[in-house]
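## Example pair
The file below holds two records. Each record gives the amino-acid sequence first, followed by its structure token line.
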Amino acid sequence: MLHQIFSQAKKQPNLTSLFIFIGAGGTEAALYTIYLALFNPDVSWNRKNNPEPWNRLGPSDQYKFY
């Protein structure tokens, strides 16, 4: 599949920017999903020891991205 993408990019150089921006957008979406899965207090990976982690947050804790 990558060979086909590279061969088309060599044939038509104007597609190179399209491949770069689509790849960057897909990478950014995947990294943001991983970030939310690991650092969001609404996600609980350990149900036995910490079933409701959002209850441990105080009023001064930041839990939003911005």
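Second record, same layout:
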Amino acid sequence: MASEAEKTFQRFAVLGDSSSSGAEINNKNFSKLCQDCGITDGKTVTSTDVDTVFNKVKAKDAGTITFQQFTEAMKELSQKRFKEKSPDQGLEDIYRLMEGKNPATTGGFYQAATAGAMDCLTDTSKYTSSHEEHLDDSGKGITGQNETTDNSGYGRGHKGAGTYDKKN
């Protein structure tokens, strides 16, 4: 039976990685877990501490850590976060922070926000008249617009192209 902490570990472990079994967690998701669960507080435990501990407990060539190594990492972080407590008590407190937590992206917040933004950007009914001139009815650009800018000079708006070498 997986503990609450282990369930949280697994939810974060598979985040953004469909091939993950949830048995191991990468540094990015480990950091996110520490952030989302409030283990990182920016004072006693910073994101640098989290990275350092992750690299300390992982196997030399590994990019991920197991739940066993995760427990080691949490013991270490708990000593920073809850200085006055024993490692075991500190670990329990950290696990309490983790209970029932989900990665903050669930709940569709990011997806909804991005979808909404894209809808605004691609909704041609909201375009102002200056944009409309360049679009046909489907919202696609009209080809064959006449380019009237004279780009033959030296730099922006410079008149007199081809006069550089002429002597007066």
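Notes on the second record: The radius of gyration is 28 Å. Confidence is low (pLDDT under 50) at residues 106-116.
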